[in-house]
Amino acid sequence: MPHAVPKQLWTPSSERIERAQITAFAHAHGLPTDYGELWRWSVADIERFWALIWSHFDVAGSYDEVLAERSMPGARWFPGAAVNYAGHALAGRDPDAIAIRHASELRGLEACGWGELATETARIRAGLIAAGVGRGDRVAAYMPNILATIPAFFATASLGAVWSSAAPEFGVRSVVDRFAQIEPKVLLAVDGYRYGGRDFDRSAEVAAIASGLPGLGRTVRYGHLDGTGWQEGFLGPADAELRFEPLPFDHPLWVLYSSGTTGLPKPIVHGHGGMLLEHLKKMNLHVDARRGDRVFWFTTTGWMMWNFLVGILLTEAEIVLYDGSPGHPGLGRLWQLAADAGVTTFGTSASFISSCMKAGVEPAADRDLSRLEAVGSTGSPLAPEGFDWIYQQLGADTWLFSTSGGTDVCTAFVGGVPTLPVYEGELQARALGADLHAFGPGGEDLVGEVGELVLTQPMPSMPVFFWGDEDGHRLRESYFDTYPGVWRHGDWIEITDRGTAIIYGRSDSTINRGGIRMGTSEIYRAVLSLDEILDALVVDVPREGEESWMPLFVVLADGVELDAGLTGRIAAAVREQCSPRHVPSEIRAIAEVPRTLSGKALEVPVKRILMGTPPERAASRESLANPAALDYFAEDLIRRGVRKIFAGCFSDYDPWGYLIAQGLDDKLRFLGFDVITYYLTSADLFTPEQIARGRDFGNLDPIKDKALQTLVDNWMAVTNGVNGRPIGLHVDVLSWGLKSAQGHNFRKWAILGQAGNWFTQVQPLAEKDRSWRVPRRLTPKSTVR
Asked: Across the beta sheet with 345-349, what order do the strands follow?
């Protein structure tokens, strides 16, 4: 259903629109300047659109045709072309112009020019050649987000070798599970890093990783902690030649990793040509990066945003790097970096914005952020309150673009457009060339409703293949099983009738923490390495505007208790073998993991239950080996909900007596449980004796109106209603009658929940003269937890 248009927070000035690169692109080729019309043209004639991207940004060389095969999977782009991503980035640059500004917890802000970058690339290239690296070989990097990592990538790409990176906070098992699949010839590895004021020596981890990589020819150390740089004898001479191997359009550029729920991480291969064209389009037309701009995005080398940030070097803008904790010595650290480096575009995550907001950070206080023009947000949906906070703190002239895409395509296909207004809580538009839609269960195109995010036509940046997936079955299962011939991305999305978009989080069970996706199997491997744990289940439940809630449920061995010591060991195992980002939000003991008859853990159904879906709709009990195991999660959902509803409610009165007087002892029952007698007790809020005393409370006329309204307001806060907009599929999870002592009937309250935080669409019906207006917005602090 259509929603009220949210508050408009920013409108680009006529001068901003006129100087935008997307406007120049439209004028240069006689295309519409209205963005909606331009987008529709770009997906109606994708061959001409991508051909214009090639010519407009002066990609060298020629090609036979634009799109030789349109099928998905299997699209063939630009056959006959010869390209090199690194060559386009480095060729023809002013050697004295700044390319990169960089800082870390170890070292202050410094600058690197294009000439220095090219020289370092050539020297590393020579070192790789001496190590036997050539076209098609893999180079793996266990490196932080520092300057040295970028010329190492460019050197690899210049040879036609294939790059792959992991952040040094990743544990040995996580790294080996990734890199062993591609069998790198060379491992580039840092000695350690500093994070949160502490130094972390990774020498032992590097040795363990190297021993787990079959076919590894050489490990090259980079001294970051000790400041020694590349190990002696690796780099070529200062006058080493820099050449760029001409490569077919779909020749592998890098391997990124995205995990499903079973098996090893999926090694996603992107081609030189596809990433070159997509990043030229994205960074110029959508990010609007230009000469004089300085673009920062907080990331690690284990997140696709590192590759995305490197893509800015295809433009005339500079990039700004930072390695370290965003919260050390305080949450103002990155804002201070923005001031010191003169950042014009500040990229971060929604959870960082939420953290700053909750901590009372004032980015512009005592800092010169006069050069800052734009803020980008990704990793998870940004709450409306996050939008408001940015404009309150940074001013009405700031362009805030929330953006969404994925590791799978190493770009964002919905997000920023510099010529469009910004509406609170919404992404501005679908990206040019991305034929993106919201699909219903039957493949119907939805507008104004939540559906599966799909792409109905190919994009050049879609994976060329998954490494080692010889027959392509893993790629097909990952994206094309639900809607044949259509890419299903795994996000809930709503496209409004104004062309804006709202992302509601993941629709599958993949763990997504801070934008880094990891399969549940990796976490299970770490958890089950402990003898005390027999089985485990983990789910990632999105929450608006902040980091998702990731509970881990464990089945304990006989005689084992889940005490503080065991909880700490579990967290340590996940931290060491996966990463600190994947440590569970909380750990709980359960009797058994619900499984199908074939033995598969019910991750998605449990996630849906914890997001509000009734168990009977989340899974067919007949298909389960142990259907009673689902009951714990339904009870847990209600128990957490009851705690939130009544904690701090009716502070001056006995709530239970009022509830009984209103007839709720009989009526407020859902999923077959007596809330008054069972859940209030299990929530540990009141004793059975207190509840029993409430049942004899009697006449409550003096408190009837306040108490009823407080009950309603607190229930609304629990379900976190924002703009009356439901998340995901509309599921009626609760319907009951409320009858006040005055005789006013509130006959039906439909709580609609799905996918992340419980948003609500509630329309109370009054029989007499009383009407209720639901608050327009309730803050996300009351989200069920």
From this structure: 110-113, 98-104, 318-323, 294-297, 345-349, 374-378, 399-402
Are 91-98+113-246 and 529-590 the same fold in CATH?
A: no
Mean pLDDT (10-residue bins), the chain, 785 residues = 81 98 98 98 98 98 96 97 98 98 98 99 99 98 99 99 96 92 99 96 97 97 98 97 98 86 78 99 99 97 96 99 95 98 96 87 96 92 89 97 94 97 96 96 88 96 97 93 92 92 76 70 83 91 77 94 96 90 92 74 83 70 75 66 40 37 37 33 41 36 37 40 28 26 25 25 28 28 28
Q: How far apart are CA 434 and CA 462, in angstroms?
A: 11
How many Å separate Cα 244 from the centre of its chain? 34
Q: What are phi and psi of 647, to 5 degrees?
A: -65, 120
Q: Which of 384, 379, 388, 418 is nearest to 401 (CA)?
A: 418
Parse the chain into domains and list their residue ranges.
91-98+113-246, 529-590, 647-782
Return the CATH architecture of domain 91-98+113-246: 3-Layer(aba) Sandwich (3.40)
The letter for the amino acid at 179 is F
Residue 621 is classified by DSSP as G
Rounded Cα–Cα distance for residues 580 and 570 (Å): 12
Q: Under CATH, which architecture does the 529-590 domain have?
A: 2-Layer Sandwich (3.30)
Question: Quick one: how far is CA 723 from the chain centroid?
Answer: 23
- Under DSSP, the state recorded for 601 is B
Phi, psi of 537 (to 5 degrees): -145, 130
What pLDDT is attached to residue 640? Answer: 53
**Orientation angle between helical segments 384-394 and 350-359, nearest 10 degrees:** 60
User: Which phi and psi angles does 609 have, rounded to 5°?
Assistant: -60, -45
Type of residue found at 615: P
Residue 285's region, left for phi above 0, alpha for psi from -120 to 50, else beta, is alpha
Residues near 528 by beta carbon (within 8 Å), at least 6 away in sequence: 535, 536
- Distance between CA atoms of residues 157 and 316, nearest Å: 20
